Each structure stands twice: as structure tokens, then as C-alpha cells.
Backbone:
């Protein structure tokens, strides 16, 4: 276990985690200790107050329906389907299909709730002048975290309140600010905080690098955020130059270097990892951690990783799995099950697939189960294909399982640190800006070829042990289309797609491939990805950063040939593209509970207002 390098005492953390679940988020933390009762010269008081800010950052990311689900499970790489026979899915299904509604309180409430609680704790500490003067570095850290909260809220909702730092009278209700004002506020806060942040510091706390990266993200997304129509106008593209400026600071600082192995960026302990620019420090049993190993693996599959649990929910979207670089090694065998070797080794670092084996067994003892999906005795073998998200859903062994964060025996991934920014992210931001600019005018070394070189540098470790020649990406490849085979993919009509098969008794033998995957009930539309601007770069973003809070934002930023962004303009498994010209789903709706608690809030355009319970 790594030690905390800074005093980080959080009052009542265990009680808060126990009391605040995904189904009970009704606390309204308006009444805090007052400044008059707090001694801001006392190190313990400072640690306690700032600790509450970090606690809420952790919960915003890892509470159920938090930031991971917010950014990943409504996108085109991963889903939580309904599992035939056991349910699952619930709110995730609506979000996968982009059926966003203010009435879905849980998944609309978590990010908003914990972000604003964290902001309120930061405000309470920062408004004390004595504290700011005595602790300039800690004050800068809190300003940077507060700005990160606002960055997430701005990206998700755009029309958000900025809470006054000074104390407010009882009954105060904040109003939403104009997005341009909010954008300027976040940028200013980060720039001011950066001055007092250290270059290197204790793991899990903001540094200059964290501020640089958040500033780079702010400017990188500016044009997509402020689009009032599609296609949007990038104007003079000055914000890409700004994003490049901040990414370049991280690249040239000399503080960071690429890890030799991709998996090293997702180990349980990242405190000594030199690629990490900012991460959430997770201590198992002390703060909230990743639940993804449990959420993705079935109870009968966790023995492959040496722990007990498993809820059997998540899966990789087959269309994305097919984008990984691979070669066929046995074409005569069914490509539904086996017969491919992936040359991009990030695949093996990210997914559990195919036959599963007992953890630690030197002779690779197969995992099996007496009955799965009424098929009789079967090996635990994850198949790539997934029937659908909800009609009928997915069978128990369908879908490769996301296991990117290191799974530790007995405690799974709940004690694994969470990377927020890595040096590879700075490389990709710089590459994207150089490509969108056609070469930078302010930092001339960032040509389009430099962009290809940066992406290649990140890819090299993924192909080092398979086919190093595949690591090289050319400008033409990055600027070309995506290899993602976009379009609806869905098997429908009953549990298997064939009423006669559906009627079979539970004791019946295993279904054959031909029976289960009946093309008569297969919905398939052909959209492809050849029309996506910088589609090759979008593909590389997926392979490198799946599960790292990227994908929703990336899909909104990249556009199709008809001017729609990929988020709205493309279909994938069980998710249909939006009508051209409708882009209100770039923003999430403000949930009913928040609207009811603050009569000054105005719902985001395109969603039902305060008095409507359903879309």
C-alpha cells in the first residue's frame, strides 16, 4: 500500500460513503461550520477542509453513475446491456441509446451533486483571507481542483451557475451564467492557480502540469462547445493555438516521460509513474475506487482474476473491438469465437476475452459453469458479439470485458489509482491541434508531420513485441476516415431472434451458432467512418484512452461529412443517429431534482422544462 504523502484527513468519510449511495443522494449540504469556528492556521483544519474537496472529486468520478459512466457508457466503445435472465442495464440502457431525460435522476444527478459539493467546500476554505495568505500553494491546489469541477460541469451542461466564493445569506439560489463568462472564469482561475502550483508535488495533488492540461482541454473543445449550429465555425482557430501552447508546456517541461509499457499506466500504484500528470490517489478501504471489475465480470468469471464478486454487466461494443489491428491465425475457425491474434497489444491490456482460466493455475485450468443461459454445462468463454442492449439484451457470456485498471487479487480494482491526465494525452492534444491548424503559426515546429510523429511515439510500445512497423502513423492516415464500421447492429425478436429457439426448455442443449445468430432478425445499417474528419486520429484516441474519461467529449468534437458530430451523426450497436440538425444532446439535461431545488435554473434547450416529468 502506498502512503499518503500529505495529511489528508476527511471527517466522517466512511460514514459518508456508507450513507451516500447511488439510490440515496438527497443530502443538501448547505449548513457547514462557519469561518468563525475554524482555525485556518491549524494544519489539521486545513487538511480536513481541503480533504473534503478531494473526497468529492473521488466521488464525482467513482460513485455509481458518476463521471466514468457519464463519459464512456453513452459512447461507442463500451456498454452496460440488459443481461438476459438477470436484468442489469436500467439507466445505462437509456444513456447508451441517447434517450436522455431530466427525469432519470440518478445518472443526471451524481456529477452535478458531487461537483458542487466539492466547489462549496473549496469556496468555504478559499474565502478565508488568512488561509490564502498563509497557504498559497494549498490555496492554488484548491483553485485548480475547483476549476476542474467547473470544467466537467461546463462540458456536461454548459449552462451552469458559478457559486460565489464569499458567504451568502440563507435562501440564496445561484443563477446560471452565460457560457462565455463561465469559460473565461475557468480559464482565469487555472491561469492564476498555475502561478502558485509547484512543478512537482505529492502524488494526487494538482501541479502546474495539471493546470496546463485542463487549460489545454478547455481550449481544445472551445469550438465544439460554442457551436450554435452545425457545422460550427472555427473562426480564426486561435483556441487551437492556445491548447497547443499549454500541451507544449507539459511536453517540454522535462517532468514527464512515456512509460515503457501501456499497462504500467493502469497499475494499482501510480505514484512513481512518470507518465502521469495528474491522478486520483486511491487507497483501498479509505476512499471510493473503481467498481468496474465487479460491474463487468460475472460472478462465475472473477476466479480468473483471484477475487469473488462480479455483477456481469458491461461489455465492449463489437464494432469497436473489430477496429484493433489484428491478423487471422486460423481462418477456418469461426471468427465469432476464435481465430484472431491482435497485434495492438493494448487489446490484451484492456479486455478479458475468450476462454477464462483459474487464477494462478500453472497448467491453465479452464473455468466452467454447470449452466449459463440455459445452455447446460459450458466453459467460461467470452464471445465478441452482443445481441443488443435491451431487445433482447445480451447473453451471460456475450461481450469482451473491460479490465484495463489493474485487478488485484481479493480486492479487484477498487484500490487502483485513477489516471486523469497522462503525457500521452498532451501528445495527442498537440497532434490534434497541429492537424486542425494545418501546422502551427505560433509554434512552427508543430507541423502536420510532427503530429504524426507524436502519435507514432505513443503507439510504439503497443506494437513493439508484435509488428513494430504498424506503430507508424502517417499524416494521411490521421486525416483520413475512421476504420470503425458505424451503423446499427442489433439482433431482435425474442431472446435469440427465433421464436422456436426461445421456446426451448432450460435443460435443452447449447444453441448452435447458426440458431442464436439468425440473420433473419438482424438489423444492420451501413454508415462506416470514412467521412469522419481526422477519423484516423479519432481511432487512435479510442485505442489509447478507452475508459479514461475521453470518449463522449471526443465524439462531440469530431465531425462527419454532413456537418454533424460523431456523437449525434453516427449509429452503433442499438443506438440510432440523430436527425440532422438536432444537436441538443451535445449537452445533458439538468435533472428534475436539481430543477425543483432551485427555481432559478433553466433547463437546457431541447429537454422538457420544470413541470415535465418525462420527455
Residues:
Amino acid at each position: 500500500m502506498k502512503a499518503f504523502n500529505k495529511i489528508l484527513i476527511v471527517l466522517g468519510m466512511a460514514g459518508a460513503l456508507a450513507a451516500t449511495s447511488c439510490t440515496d443522494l438527497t443530502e443538501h449540504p448547505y449548513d457547514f461550520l462557519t469561518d468563525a469556528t475554524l482555525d485556518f492556521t491549524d494544519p489539521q483544519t486545513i487538511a480536513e477542509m481541503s480533504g473534503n474537496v478531494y473526497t468529492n472529486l473521488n466521488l464525482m468520478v467513482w460513485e455509481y453513475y458518476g463521471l466514468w459512466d457519464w463519459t464512456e457508457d453513452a459512447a461507442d466503445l463500451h456498454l452496460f446491456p440488459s443481461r438476459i435472465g438477470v436484468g442489469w442495464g436500467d439507466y445505462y440502457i437509456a444513456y447508451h441509446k441517447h434517450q436522455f431525460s431530466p427525469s432519470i435522476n440518478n445518472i443526471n444527478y451524481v456529477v452535478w451533486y458531487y461537483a458542487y459539493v466539492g466547489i462549496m467546500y473549496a469556496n468555504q476554505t478559499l474565502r478565508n483571507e488568512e488561509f490564502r495568505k498563509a497557504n498559497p500553494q494549498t490555496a492554488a491546489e484548491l483553485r485548480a481542483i475547483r476549476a476542474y469541477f467547473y470544467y466537467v460541469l461546463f462540458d456536461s451542461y454548459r449552462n451552469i451557475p458559478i457559486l460565489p466564493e464569499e458567504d451568502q445569506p440563507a435562501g440564496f439560489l445561484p443563477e446560471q451564467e452565460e457560457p462565455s463568462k463561465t469559460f473565461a472564469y475557468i480559464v482565469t482561475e487555472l491561469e492564476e492557480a498555475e502561478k502558485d502550483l509547484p512543478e512537482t508535488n505529492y502524488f494526487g495533488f494538482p501541479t502546474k502540469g495539471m493546470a496546463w492540461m485542463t487549460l489545454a482541454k478547455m481550449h481544445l473543445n472551445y469550438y465544439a462547445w460554442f457551436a450554435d449550429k452545425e457545422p460550427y465555425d472555427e473562426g480564426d482557430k486561435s483556441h487551437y493555438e492556445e491548447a497547443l501552447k499549454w500541451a507544449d508546456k507539459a511536453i517540454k517541461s522535462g517532468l514527464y516521460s512515456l512509460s515503457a509499457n501501456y499497462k504500467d499506466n493502469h497499475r494499482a500504484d501510480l505514484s512513481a509513474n512518470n507518465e502521469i500528470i495528474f491522478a486520483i490517489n486511491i487507497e483501498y478501504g479509505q476512499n471510493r475506487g473503481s467498481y468496474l471489475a465487479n460491474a463487468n465480470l460475472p460472478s462465475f468469471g472473477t476466479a480468473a482474476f483471484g477475487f469473488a464478486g462480479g455483477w456481469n454487466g458491461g461489455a465492449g461494443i463489437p464494432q469497436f473491438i473489430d477496429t484493433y489491428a489484428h491478423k487471422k491465425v486460423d481462418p477456418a475457425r469461426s471468427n465469432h469465437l476464435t481465430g484472431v491474434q491482435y497485434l495492438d497489444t493494448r487489446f490484451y491490456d484492456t479486455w478479458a476475452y475468450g476462454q477464462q482460466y483459474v487464477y494462478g493455475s500453472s497448467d491453465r485450468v479452464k473455468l466452467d459453469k454447470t449452466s449459463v443461459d440455459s445452455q447446460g454445462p459450458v466453459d467460461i468463454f467470452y464471445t465478441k458479439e452482443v445481441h443488443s442492449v435491451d431487445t433482447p439484451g445480451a447473453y451471460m457470456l456475450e461481450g469482451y470485458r473491460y479490465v484495463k485498471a489493474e485487478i488485484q487479487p481479493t480486492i479487484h480494482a477498487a484500490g487502483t489509482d485513477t489516471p486523469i491526465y497522462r503525457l500521452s494525452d498532451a501528445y495527442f492534444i498537440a497532434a490534434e491541434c497541429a492537424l486542425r491548424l494545418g501546422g502551427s503559426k505560433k509554434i512552427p515546429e508543430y507541423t502536420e508531420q510532427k503530429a504524426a510523429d507524436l502519435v507514432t511515439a505513443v503507439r510504439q510500445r503497443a506494437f513493439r513485441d508484435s509488428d513494430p512497423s504498424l506503430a507508424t502513423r502517417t499524416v494521411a492516415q490521421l486525416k483520413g476516415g475512421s476504420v470503425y464500421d458505424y451503423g446499427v447492429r442489433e439482433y431482435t425478436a425474442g431472446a435469440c431472434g427465433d421464436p422456436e429457439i426461445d421456446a426451448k426448455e432450460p435443460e435443452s442443449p447449447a444453441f448452435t451458432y447458426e440458431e442464436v445468430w439468425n440473420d433473419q432478425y438482424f438489423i444492420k445499417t451501413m454508415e462506416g467512418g470514412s467521412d469522419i474528419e481526422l477519423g484516423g486520429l479519432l481511432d487512435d484516441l479510442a485505442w489509447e484512452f478507452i475508459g479514461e474519461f475521453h470518449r463522449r467529449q471526443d465524439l462531440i468534437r469530431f465531425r462527419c461529412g454532413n456537418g454533424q458530430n460523431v456523437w449525434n451523426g453516427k449509429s452503433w450497436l442499438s443506438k440510432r443517429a440523430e436527425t440532422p440538425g438536432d444537436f441538443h444532446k451535445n449537452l445533458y439535461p439538468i435533472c428534475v431534482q436539481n430543477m425543483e431545488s432551485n427555481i432559478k435554473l433553466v433547463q437546457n434547450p431541447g429537454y422538457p422544462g420544470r413541470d415535465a416529468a418525462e420527455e
The two ends are 47 Å apart (CA to CA). The longest strand covers residues 276-280. Confidence is low (pLDDT under 50) at residues 1-32, 332-337, 495-499, 503-514. Residues 105-126 form the longest helix (22 residues).
